[in-house]
Predict the 3D structure of the following.
Amino acid sequence: RAPINTPDDDIFYVQSADGKRGYVSSVRKHGLGEKDIYRIDFDRSIAEPLTLLKGSLTFNGTNKTPSNTRITVMDEEGIVVQDIKPNEKTGKYVMILAPGIKGKTYSVNFEADGYQPISISLVIPPNSSYQEIEKEFILQMINLESKTLGTMAVKGIVRNKEGKSIPGASITLKDNTTGDLIETFYTTIDSGSYYFIVNRGQNYNISYEAKGYLFHSENINVPKVAEFGVMEKDVILDKVEIGSKIVLNNIFFDSNKATLRKESSVEIDKLVLLMKEYPELVIEVSGHTDSKGNDATNMKLSQARSQAVVNALIKKGIKKQNLVAKGYGETAPIAPNTLPNGKPDLKGMQQNRRVEMKIVK
């Protein structure tokens, strides 16, 4: 092995991507020329495994790269470990990641102003050797000027409870009727904002998700009319911890019944994925009603509805001991059931008819 940092003229040191070798130019006794290239082999026990991530980006099918294009990589703690720009002419990029022997999970974000950002999760298992990973992506342009009749723009910012934006959060858009995935969007790195357009006349399940947080779901089911609209929705995600809870906005029942409708399947599957990712969790599924009707009847209905959700989860393989069904009837409203004039508050009553999920252990 060639020594390094000798009394000789050692210059232009370069380390190999796998961290196992180094190269240096040096003028030494018994050399073959003025400046020869020497190789240094490092002890395998101290060589750090590296991952080479490379690929290319195209923009609406072309390689013409906007000058403001960024590729950022964050580790599990949210620290940016890489922030680069692809080649302006070819859209190609290359970077080196150092996950260490314990491995790491990275969030890799590709974005450019005026284009839908893309975010991927890159998992490097423990004790991985040197590897090269190639990823190619197409960024689609956002037409902010488009106001096509029969469509609706959905936009906002995704934050945590501390008010900090969550970059690279995913937003999945599914059809509640068919269960089909329509598209996945991502929040921007700088502001955590998002923007996309949907067609009117469909029943959508919109799920906002980020690692370490509970998902937040919204239901969009607007009439099919020849109008353009805008829905602004800022979302706050709760961390996966005891006491955190979410409203399951895409759980549906027929009026005064406790039978889950088919459109609830997408939301049930989201819960199943959450419980499989965190198998140690114990959750309470709670049913709630509005104030219409008899108190005892409402309590019984809410209990039956929460049990219906629990039964669906058990049927999907979630352990019974991790689930608690609890009906609250009309005792825990989140909105007024009546207007100041005493008449029913239809919007508030609709909000109160809900199913929630809370982490209790």
